[in-house]
Structures are given as structure tokens and as C-alpha cells.
Amino acid sequence: MEIDVSFDFRSDSGGKDPDKYSRTLRQYHKLLWSRDLPNGQFFGLTDSVPGKYLVYQSNFGQFSLSSDSVIPTFAKWKSMKPVTENFSADEIEAFVSIGYTMGGMMIFPANQVGGAQTINGARGFTRAISDRFDLTLECIRRYYLHIESPLAQTLARYANFFELFLDFRGYVDFFLLQDLVNIDGKVQFFLPFVEFGPPSVPKDRHAYAKYRQRSIDFVRARNNRIMALGI
After folding, report:
1. Would you state the torsion angle of the CA atoms of residues 36, 154, 151, 64, taken in this order, to the nearest 10 degrees?
2. Buried/exposed 125-146: b ≥16 CB within 10 Å, e otherwise
3. Is residue 148 part of a domain?
4. Which domain holds residue 14?
5. What are 71-128's pLDDT values in tens digits?
6. What is the rounded CA–CA span in Å between residue 214 and residue 76?
7. Does residue 1 lie within any of the structural domains?
8. Helix axes 89-99 and 205-228, enclosed angle (nearest 10)
9. Cys bridge to 21: 16, 41, 150, 175, which one at CB 3.0-4.6 A?
């Protein structure tokens, strides 16, 4: 199987959540991320464990992983309707579609620790993040630097997972996120950023247009990086 970066994972999920039901997406994750980690170990993923999406086993422990589409369009948010209704159905669909290609997908630890939210859950339920991946990545950057963020406690519960990548640069390079980080190692935000202050979502047509275009540019650039691997 070769990775087709134009493939929309909604097309083989039977109308259900592609993160759970797209068989193509699961195989792409397995193919793409089963490679050497920054710590020198091989990140060999298996999808053969009953009841698990993907699993990685090493002397660091067993990691249960799940898929997450990380580019929210906010098109289904009722509170965002006054903003998103300024864009045509075709513009919204184009945004949703590219977000469901491989460049818009990530894997995160799926196991709950102490009954608390997973990273996927906390990204969506933390208002200062609102599921945005640029803000999530900033929290991960701060985690590696031991700086507080809205996701600090959540990320700390998965310290053994983040140790696999050694540092923020290792995490960014492994997951092909270079186009969301500048040469100084700082996150390049989709919208103006002031210490996780509100609003965390685009509040008008201009802001949404900027957020939409920067998100699309990132996914396209990441898809190009995936293609360059020749998998």
C-alpha cells in the first residue's frame, strides 16, 4: 500500500468518524509512523491487538494510540454559524476535505490515566484550545520546556510517550510538523496569539479566512513532506 495524500478518509468510513472507522487511515498511520524514533528505537506499530486502534510496545511501556483529525473547520459549531455562513458550501467542503487527508491527521495516546481526559479529549474540551492544532502544538512545546499551558496537566500524564521523542524538535521532526514551526523553534500560529487569551476561534469573516488559508497551507505542506518520504 502506498500513501495517497489526496485520499479523503471520509470516503471509506461509511459515514462514520474516519478516525475510528477508516481502514485506509489506520493503515496509513501504521505505514507512516512505523520508523526510527529520535531515541534510536523503532516505533513499530501494530493494529492486531483486539479492541485497540494502534499499539506500540517497548521497554518504555505499551502505548495504545488513536487517530485524531487535527484541523477543525468549526463548520458544525452553532456558535460559529454567523462566521461560517459567510463562506460558500464549496469553500467549506474544500476545507473539510483537505483536513481529512493525511496531512491533517495525528496519533496521540488513547489510554485514560486515572480516569482523566486523554489529549484528544482535552484538546476539544479546553476552551483556550478549541481543538486547534497550532495551539495544541504550542502546549507541547511548552511541555518540553517545563512551561505552564492549558494542557500542561494532560500532557504530563503521558510523559513516557513524549520521552520517546527526546525534545520538541524531535517531536516536530518525527511527525513532519516543520511547516508549523519557524527556524527558532517557535510555533507559527494560524491566528494572532496572546498567551492563550480569547478568542480561541475565528470571530469574524476576515479571521476565519486567514485561519482557513493558513490551515490549508499547512496541510498541503505536510502532505508534500509525506510524499517526499516515498512510502
Report:
1. 40
2. ebebbbbbbbbbbbbbbbbbee
3. yes
4. 9-228
5. 999 999 999 999 999 999 999 999 999 999 999 999 999 988 888 899 999 999 999 9
6. 20
7. no
8. 40
9. 16
